[in-house]
Amino acid sequence: ALIGREDELAALAEHWLAVCGGSGRVAVLRGGPGVGKSRIAREVAERCERDGTTLWIRCDRLRRTSPLWPLRQVLEAASPNGYGLTIDDVDRAAEQLGLADTAPLVRFALGLTDRAPLELDPLSLHREVLTTLRRWLVALASVRPVLLVIDDLHWADASTVELVELVAANPVPQ
Hints:
Number of helices: 7
Shape: globular
Number of strands: 2
Largest sheet: 2 strands, parallel
Structural class: mainly alpha
Oligomer: single chain
């Protein structure tokens, strides 16, 4: 248990109860390096495990130029083959979420295919990718409440930051 963090944990527990009740919420843990943000997030994730799904994204300064790398990392961790993300993994996840029609776009967004499945200008394609990824989060949240933890967001690539902003502007309802 964390000592001296009861107020923060209580506030986050209140947010989680609202999420479990069907309300989308966003909470931000701010502070300098080493003050315990990740430890608080781990404690909250452990408490939320029985009621929901936790997606833990760790941003890395060395991957700052790799679009959507943190999201790919989450999908790789869930991959049954244990060694990396495959086209079949994306197709299977899309099917399970009831979003099979989005698989080609997600495969492209995660760098598993070279050719965009839609004939759009680059900006429109980018927006469609972000909207589709948000749809995946909505579909996942419709099954179980989702706790999305993003560690070291300041190291995220621009596309990941845009996705986070999109979700934060409209927190995913259950």
